[in-house]
UniProtKB/TrEMBL annotation:
The active site is at 62 (nucleophile), 317 (proton donor). Coiled coil: none annotated. Keywords: Disulfide bond, Glycoprotein, Hydrolase, Signal. GO terms for molecular function: acid phosphatase activity. Pfam families: His_Phos_2. This is Phosphoglycerate mutase-like protein. Disulfide bonds join 51-367, 240-253, 390-402. Residues 1-20 form the signal peptide. InterPro entries: Acid_Pase_AS, His_Pase_clade-2, His_PPase_superfam, Histidine_acid_Pase_euk.
């Protein structure tokens, strides 16, 4: 059985006690509360003492949020079914992990907005970022123009700058609209008209039809008169994820086996890979992410002559997934199959790559003796994600890094792609006049 509360789990870890390796909250895909990514084997987390980070670019996902308007109805539908069966449930002999249903289940979840745990994740990350790079002082913050992203940037800034932050002016705190006319590395898909048609949920529907029915059957066998459907089961899985996101605790996480949660996690991976990654019609996923990679290279090469030492920017899981696709990272071959079986060692894993409050940190660094020339590495959720396409030396391999020049060369697909080019227009269905 899983821990019912992730807050109690993190409290335990604060006092240094080893926490159980696996619990439900760690396997809720992009709906997982923030967690540090595992360190890839053979890779060191820290740079040697003779290396200095000269420039850093942070792309931060917003923190834990309420369900989307498309997700909440599943939870409300479940509540309705359980409410109808309340008399039978109160009298029934229920298994211990479902005892809570004797008193009924009422959801008070809102929609879309950042939650209290979300605020805390961002404030903490702001403090930690300030401490991690004491010699690099940021002077501006940029947020994608959506409420939960803006609020996330605000909490991070409170942690990073302190209470003087609210007096900063618009030069220092700005937003980039999230709409279909703003060319943005935070929301590149919004200016690609065909994306909204390519972004089908076919894979998740296919996978849902495989993994949900046995769970529904199991629940109906122990919950009298509820007559749950697969949509209700889906609602119960969402209830686990979103109660955690909003309240830090959910009785529903205990209602599922480890395998059932792992199957839900796979659904979320299929969703993100299909909508913002490698399972979009080729080459849409990598192409969209080139806007981010080109922005990174523009800044780290200082090609406009006005690059800052620190960038603090706020966006989405989708921002990070599209960037990973352009970089060729976390790519599965063969592609993730919609009808299963779940590939156990898949590389595309939203639980560790894009949980709520995910932090994609790019460091440009130099060393006096360990390495020659400028270097680059990607630290995703506090662990280096090896830049395998350009890693050459043993230093590269043990730090997940590359020489900056090799990194730029390895990303020629990005540097040769531009928004509004013939290739972009073709992939995005933009008519050229
Ligand atoms: C719930 O109960 C109402 C009133 O008895 C009934 O009309 C409705 O069909 C029931 N709904 C479900 C989903 O069982
Ligand atoms: C905003 O702050 C920046 C950086 O301190 C400063 O250069 C600029 O003049 C300020 N702008 C306004 C309108 O106060
Ligand atoms: C942007 O969206 C609006 C509203 O949905 C639509 O009318 C318009 O045609 C779109 N523009 C582009 C460039 O896609
Ligand atoms: C999704 O399925 C529908 C119906 O089967 C099909 O028409 C559509 O082309 C599929 N979309 C994608 C992106 O595969
Ligand atoms: C259970 O739900 C199904 C589908 O919603 C419906 O067809 C069936 O009549 C229901 N059974 C009972 C016993 O309410
Ligand atoms: C940096 O220079 C480029 C090119 O001249 C310009 O478009 C951009 O606005 C400048 N950025 C800042 C932060 O001044
Ligand atoms: C970018 O180049 C300008 C002009 O040479 C310089 O003032 C600035 O410090 C450089 N930025 C970084 C991050 O190196
Ligand atoms: C791509 O489409 C845009 C908008 O229609 C157009 O301005 C641009 O010229 C097109 N690019 C090419 C290379 O045709």
């Amino acid at each position: 059985m899983f821990f019912r509360s992730f807050l109690s789990v993190s409290l335990v870890s604060w006092v240094g006690v080893v926490v159980a390796a696996d619990s439900a909250w760690q396997h809720l895909g992009n709906l997982s509360p923030y967690q540090k990514a595992p360190l890839p084997s053979g890779v060191k987390a820290d740079l040697p003492d003779d290396c200095t980070v000269d420039q850093v670019m942070l792309m931060h996902r917003h923190g834990s949020r309420y369900p989307l308007v498309t997700e909440l109805p599943f939870i409300q539908g479940l509540q309705y079914k359980l409410g109808n069966a309340s008399d039978a449930l109160a009298k029934a002999k229920l298994p211990s992990n479902l005892q809570f249903l004797k008193k009924g289940y009422t959801t008070t979840l809102g929609v879309n907005d950042l939650t209290a745990p979300g605020r805390q994740q961002l404030f903490n990350h702001g403090v930690e970022f300030r401490l991690k790079y004491p010699n690099l002082q940021a002077s501006s913050v940029l947020a994608g123009g959506q409420d939960r992203v803006i609020e996330s940037a605000q909490w991070f800034s409170q942690g990073y700058f302190g209470r003087t932050w609210p007096t900063l002016n618009e030069t220092e705190f700005s937003t980039l609209p999230e709409n279909n006319v703003t060319i943005s590395w935070i929301t590149p898909m919004d200016t690609c008209p065909l994306w909204q048609y390519a972004y089908g949920n076919n894979a998740t529907v296919t996978w849902g039809a495989v993994y949900l029915p046995p769970i529904t059957k199991r629940l109906n066998n122990v919950l009298p008169h509820t007559n749950l459907t697969d949509d209700d089961t889906h609602g119960a899985l969402f209830a686990c994820a979103y109660d955690l996101a909003a309240h830090g605790v959910s009785p529903w996480c205990d209602a599922f086996t480890e395998k059932e949660i792992a199957d839900f996690e796979y659904e979320l991976d299929l969703l993100m890979d299909g909508a913002f990654g490698y399972n979009l019609p080729s080459p849409m996923g990598p192409m969209l992410g080139t806007l981010f990679v080109n922005k990174l290279i523009e800044r780290f090469s200082n090609s406009t002559g006005n690059a800052s030492a620190v960038y603090l920017e706020f966006g989405h899981d989708t921002t990070i997934d599209q960037a990973l696709a352009a970089l060729g990272l976390a790519k599965d071959s063969p592609p993730l199959p919609a009808s299963g079986p779940v590939p156990a060692n898949r590389k595309f894993k939203t639980s560790i790559q894009v949980p709520f409050a995910a932090q994609m940190v790019w460091e440009k660094f130099s060393c006096t003796s360990s390495a020659k020339d400028a270097q680059i590495r990607l630290v995703l959720n506090e662990s280096p994600l090896p830049l395998s396409a350009c890693a050459k030396s043993s230093f590269d391999k043990s730090h997940g890094s590359c020489s900056y020049d090799s990194f730029v060369k390895a990303n020629s697909y990005s540097t040769s792609t531009q928004w509004g080019s013939a290739a972009w227009n073709k992939t995005c269905g933009v008519a050229a006049f």
